[in-house]
What we know:
- By secondary structure, this protein is α/β, with parallel strands linked by helices.
- The chain has two domains: 5-96 and 283-302, 3-Layer(aba) Sandwich (Rossmann fold); 100-274, NAD(P)-binding Rossmann-like Domain (Rossmann fold, 3-Layer(aba) Sandwich), CATH 3.40.50.720.
- The chain is built from twelve helices and twelve strands.
- Strands 8-7-6-9-10-11-12 form a seven-stranded parallel beta sheet.
- The chain is globular, with a radius of gyration of 21 Å.
- Bound molecules: NADP nicotinamide-adenine-dinucleotide phosphate.
Amino acid sequence: MPIDVLQLTPLIAAGDEDLHRNYSVCRWYDLPDRERWLDEHNASIRAVITAGHLGISNEMFRRLPSLGLVAIAGVGYEKVDLDAARERGIRVTNTPDVLTNDVADLAVGLMIATMRQIAAADRYVRDGRWIAGEMDLAARVSGRRYGIVGFGRIGQAVARRLEGFGGSIAYTSRTKKQSPHAFHSTVIDLARESDVLIVTVAAGPATRHLVGRAVLDALGPTGFLINVARGSIIDETELIAALQDRRLAAAGLDVYADEPRVPPALSALPNVTLTPHIGSATVDARLAMARLMLANLDAFYAGHPLPTPVV
Ligand code: NAP
């Protein structure tokens, strides 16, 4: 059987087993000579499996003449050229909803960890520094003004969690939602009215560096920034400068401009909490994502309607 599925990213073990049991798949990331493999097999590939932050390059797009489906195990699709896909009749699917709660949990966890210095406190105890005295005091989390940038599935799930925190919640998005929370049409207005800014907006050319110097200054020296969306949305150079100069109190980041590389200047800062893009990294979410991705693959091969199409 010719190999007709190209897998650019590993799945959780149970999903990987199902995929390899039912399809003729090549694991791209294990190939010793990718160029040669592509020259030999490019014509037979009908489906590519990828992750949101990986997508598929336009070059690979061009080199797969029989491609009919790009199945993303993830929500973001900013790294897939949707116009090129439409032109060639290539379908694109993602896995929304099944990871929403996990990413929202992490956003709130990062917010608490950052404001209460939980990671630093852990290091404090492990390093034996407690004997010498108590840590510096942290900032209160509850009762604050929370601003959510992007009010889609994840942004709204963050809001639902924050409703228990006794503060006020406001948001920005392209469109005003049916929501009891205050809508701001610009991120800078939202930042001015917030103590904590939580970024959950979709990535793309329109939101690149949406959070730059002006927004960071509007958030100010007592403000906190949390990003669980994509690194491209924040101007990382400006963020590092603001944190160094204490023009911003602290940041909690799950995503970065050039993952998995994190600028040493960022890692060196005491006022950041850093996680390695783990928003959806729970067994439960990864299993559900693999299953939904496989459901899209099955539907594509069976000629049935795709469960969660992007294009
Ligand atoms: P979603 O439901 O599509 O929500 C996206 C939000 O972004 C919507 O509020 C949308 O506004 C807004 N938006 C899109 N384009 C915009 C633009 N040009 N200007 C301003 N706002 C814009 O997506 P989701 O499921 O909540 O996921 C959000 C993002 O989280 C994903 O795109 C992904 O990058 C990221 N993510 C990260 C992780 C992680 O591991 N850290 C995991 C999953 C997802 P409207 O509502 O007005 O359309």
